[in-house]
Specification:
By secondary structure, this protein is mainly beta. Helix content is 6%, strand content 41%. The protein is elongated.
Length: 167
């Protein structure tokens, strides 16, 4: 598990006074400001975030050290992180996406199905994107209690009972 969790990304500039467009990956999007200061992926740079207002697909705001439109344009795509220990504690049946990615997925008989490449959500519920040598392309496994009865973060594995036809 990584020590840093991605909570947002800079989507570009907003206006001409150094404001940024910000995508928040938090469950309550505006709570990203409460995690300030944020860092870049390797933790070498720190940014203080101040949100200005909600805009289409995110927020406008200011990052420390970004004063001009050109500087805001230059950091487009910058992913913003916080240390894991600043994240709220989750109930036993909830997981951060970052904790699930990379876990091996086994069926109920102990056969390796693949590895979680990403966690996606297209509106209904979360889906685990699985990749593996025995899979023909990408497999999307519903992340429900029926399809995924066991997640063992300590052992780095998931036990799945995929619905008929998924594999």
């Amino acid at each position: 598990m990584s020590d840093l969790i991605c909570v947002g990304a800079v989507a570009g500039s907003y206006g001409v006074r150094g404001e940024i467009r910000l995508k928040s990956f938090c469950a309550v999007p505006e709570e990203i400001a409460e995690y300030s200061p944020l860092t870049n992926e390797d933790g070498s740079q720190s940014y203080t975030l101040t949100l200005s207002r909600p805009i289409k697909n995110g927020f406008s705001g200011h990052l420390s050290g970004v004063e001009t439109k050109e500087q805001a344009d230059a950091i487009k795509g910058l992913r913003l992180f916080i240390p894991r220990d600043r994240m709220p504690k989750l109930p036993d049946d909830e997981y951060y996406h970052a904790d699930l990615m990379g876990l091996e997925v086994y069926d109920t008989g102990g056969t390796l199905l693949g590895t979680v490449k990403s966690v996606q959500n297209h509106g209904a519920s979360d889906l685990l994107e699985l990749h593996g040598p025995n899979l023909k392309g990408t497999v999307l496994l519903p992340f429900t209690l029926a399809a995924v009865p066991t997640v063992d973060l300590e052992k780095g594995r998931i036990v799945a009972d995929p619905p008929e036809g998924v594999l």
